[in-house]
């Protein structure tokens, strides 16, 4: 009788990233030197947006994804904020709409022309003020058009209805700076990680905290929902300061399902999950690892 392995081999287990050819890269972009831990870039089917280094306020460039090569130093920018831009996110329902938040305590909505920018864009479609301190994170609701979430250094999450330009709800359950926000597929649950070392699962409509974890062996930094699997994936550090990931049941955060140490390097790991292939990508400052 022939021997067969008892495990199922993954066809993705030897996937490695490959650097694109130089002619398919973007060069010469003065990327921001801000120490705020965030992506500082966003991409959709039409445009690539990157937060840039600038004086006299925050700005970011928006480049058509087909416009490869070296970018002119005087390339037009989106530059209406009075402080550094801390986060940018494209509207999932409209490829030409992008939201930004800044140290100036504002959230702004911009409309990018189909052909891209020909001159600096200084006038936003909407200016949203509601936070008392700088705004570090923004997330669009995944299933409802015109709903935007913002998290500020005032420890609050505001839910904005962009049709009226006003916040319709405030979630006030955090005791320190919110580090990350992630929605499940339907947008019925919001997961957050916080500087108070707690992982929370919140019902956005009511603002009620459904689950909360404060696990001493795993200090959570970033969190992402794994599609419709009812699982959460967090990146963080162990009690020995090694970088690790942890898998959680969204309905029971008393203990992680599994923990895995990655390495002893410093720096955050940003998780990105592809629901179509069930691939998890961990991005650091110098590398990207698929799982």
From TrEMBL:
WD repeat windows: 78-112, 128-170, 171-212
Molecular-function annotations in GO: actin filament binding
Pfam families linked: DUF1899, WD40
The entry's keywords: Repeat, WD repeat
Domain DUF1899, first and last residues per copy: 5-69
Signal sequence region: none
Family under the similarity heading: Belongs to the WD repeat coronin family.
The protein's name in its UniProt record: Coronin
Organism field: Anabarilius grahami (Kanglang fish)
